[in-house]
Amino acid sequence: MRPWLSRKNPPDESQAVVDAGSDVGELKTFWEHLDDLRRTLFKSIIALAITFHVALAFSNRILRVLTWPLRRVTDHPENFLLSLNVTDSFVLSIKLALYVGLVVAAPAILYFVGQFLLPALTPKEKRMLWPGFTAGTALFIVGVVSCFFLVVPQTLRAFIHASHWLGIEPRWTIDSYIGFVTQFTLMTGLTFEIPLVILILVRLGVLGYATVRRGRKMFILAAFVITAFLAPPDPLSMVLMALPLVLLFEITIWLSWYAERKRR
To answer: pTM for this one?
Structure first.
């Protein structure tokens, strides 16, 4: 028998692909990813349900905290806040518990989402996950606290003076007041995250320092456009929310220069 007859037939290409894939490691199927997503959503809902029911038990104290800016402005805040509907008290308790429960449960929810996304991240992205999470949480807290204790009282005082100047005695519904304070503070906290997102994109190489610096005018314009949608419908709130964002962007420009230099 000739030598070439004694040789083994070459393996089939599909079999070679299977053998190569077995060395890479077992990959999850679509349904397994869907099951992981279902568990992540379930744990997030459980965390939100726990914080919601705890906050519902303390809704009266939460309301007293939220009326603190109004007490800074006037000695009789009860004269400004009205309840016009029968169900206002019940609906307000649910809203307060939902707002506070969502804020308190946010770290746990982000942790569960991070567990779900972690296997898909590159090593570089994994190294940036926890520093980014810590910095994002700190920026959100700084934005909420500074808005609640500094900006909201001044805004309320300006609205009261404007009403008196027009000869109008200010009377606000409790639902309108709570909606204004919570929307203003939470949206300010979220807008404080925008410079962090830009800095992460620079660190990943998606954006460059030169691009960020050239986009200063566009970002200032975008800041006022974003706050026009997120802030309560008045020019003063828009300006008070946009100015800290512009200041943060100026800081982000210099941090982008440092991040790009370190990356190179």
So the answer is: 0.70
